[in-house]
Amino acid sequence: MESVETRPEHGHDHDHANRAAVARLMGAMRERDYATIADVLAPDAVIRSPITDSFQFRGREDALAVLTIVAEAMEGIEHHELVGAGEVWSQRFTVRVRGRSLEGMDLLRFDGEGRVRDLTVFIRPLPGLAVFAAALAPGVGRRAGRLATIVLRLLIEPLTAMTRHGDRLVGWLLRETWGSGSSA
After folding, report:
1. Distance between CA 178 and CA 124 in Å, rounded?
2. Rounded to the nearest 5°, which phi and psi values hold at 118?
3. What is the mean pLDDT of the chain?
4. pLDDT band at 12 (very low <50, low <70, confident <90, very high)
5. 86 DSSP assignment
6. β-sheet bridge partners, residue 110
7. pLDDT of res. 80
8. Which residues lie closer than 8 Å to 18 by C-beta, 6 or more apart?
9. Is residue 66 a contact partner of residue 133, using CB atoms and an 8 Å limit?
10. Residue 171 is inside which H or E element, if any?
11. How is residue 145 annotated by DSSP?
12. Calpha distance 184→138 (Å, rounded)
């Protein structure tokens, strides 16, 4: 496999521009600067949700709409390690949603103009992901109407409760059987 450094299309200028675009996007999410978010997104941007694999948000307009809903749900976002080269970059983040601490990773792919063409989001732990889904459901469902909002809520709220209580139980069971580890 050829290393990233030896491929001519992955020069330092390209890396610097994409690194700067990641910083712009992350800063804009933190500051809720929707004009900058739109500017960083490619016209054909795709957002891949950590909640479902059955649907992607496609196009700048829909990508911006869902990122607006996400930004409004997040509190105290902090960005940490940034790694990448060429057109592929990843940044770890921590955030609170409805008072629950989450950890996530954004995997970004850029087009030739330094705009985000693909953003895949990963979030852990599972109870945090469920809270994240519950926080987004009203905004996401609103575009499809009242019925969609109700259905999303009915599907997600039980999952939120089950994972919250199940996480505590699993932690207790594992500590009892493994005798090591810690509670967060």
Report:
1. 22
2. -150, 125
3. 89
4. low
5. T
6. 116
7. 95
8. 84, 86, 87, 89, 110, 114
9. no
10. helix 146-178
11. -
12. 29
Q: 127 falls in which pLDDT band (50, 70, 90)?
A: very high
Residue 142 — pLDDT band, cuts 50, 70, 90? Answer: confident
Dist CA 78 CA 94 (whole Å): 5
Q: Is the bond into 125 cis (omega within 30 degrees of 0)?
A: yes
Pairs from 41-44 (Cβ < 8 Å, separation ≥ 24): 41/115, 41/116, 42/110, 42/111, 42/113, 42/115, 42/116, 42/117, 44/117
Nearest C-alpha neighbor of 135 from the set 123, 151, 153: 153
Residues sharing a CB contact under 8 Å with residue 174, sequence separation 6 or more, in sequence order: 181
> CA 18 to CA 34: how far, in whole Å?
19
Contact between 141 and 115 (Cβ < 8 Å): no
The predicted pLDDT at position 6 comes to 36
Q: Which two tokens stand for residue 119?
A: 């953003």
Are 28 and 103 spatial neighbours (Cβ–Cβ below 8 Å)? Answer: no
Question: Are 101 and 19 contacting, i.e. CB atoms less than 8 angstroms apart?
Answer: no
Query: Which two three-digit tokens encode residue 39?
Result: 């500017």
Structure tokens at 152: 């999303």
pTM of the model: 0.83
Please name the residues in contact with 67: beta carbons below 8 A apart, sequence gap of 6 or more.
Answer: 29, 34, 37, 47
Per DSSP, helices labelled H in 49-145 are 60-73, 126-142
